[in-house]
Amino acid sequence: MATITRTWAMPSRWTFTIKPIAELLARLIPPGGDGWIDPFAGEHSPAATTNDLNPDRPTDHHLQAVEFLRLFPDRSVPGVLFDPPYSPRQVKEVYAQIGLPLSQVDTQSKFWSQCKDEIQRIAQPGATVISFGWNSSGMGKRRGFELVELLLVPHGWMHNDTIVTVERKTSLF
Fold first, then answer.
1. What ranges in 36-172 are assigned the alpha helix state H?
2. Whole-angstrom distance between the N-terminal and C-terminal Cα of the chain?
3. Which of 27, 72, 84, 169 has its Cβ near the most Cβ atoms within 10 Å?
């Protein structure tokens, strides 16, 4: 049975600096992020290999997330941080901020599904995927993952909660 925790914290655009989230990551990710990847790293990612579309972010790569995920062989990654823009509006803001044109595909659910399909492919058996957003969908059973832990982080009256889903890959597909 999954552990569910609810802890209030101030919001931050840098998800990994929010106190209860930082504590969860420190508990689950080995020092130096050994083998872990982050396709939407932004700043402050504890993953060893990072990516962000914005060339001004301090990451290893600056690719579209799906292109970054395709760099990894099947079943080769022990852990993934999945902290994409949480809504089509946020995708639009990210693209505008770095001067990229936005296509209709970039704001459809297909965008997130393609990333999750690639994560499923590259995650090794027993891998941990930590997903962030405004829902608890995570990777899901259909992709061979089981829920291990759920962290709800309310931020106060006018802010959506940040929902953190910790899942483990149980299937080889």
1. 65-69, 88-97, 109-122
2. 23
3. 169
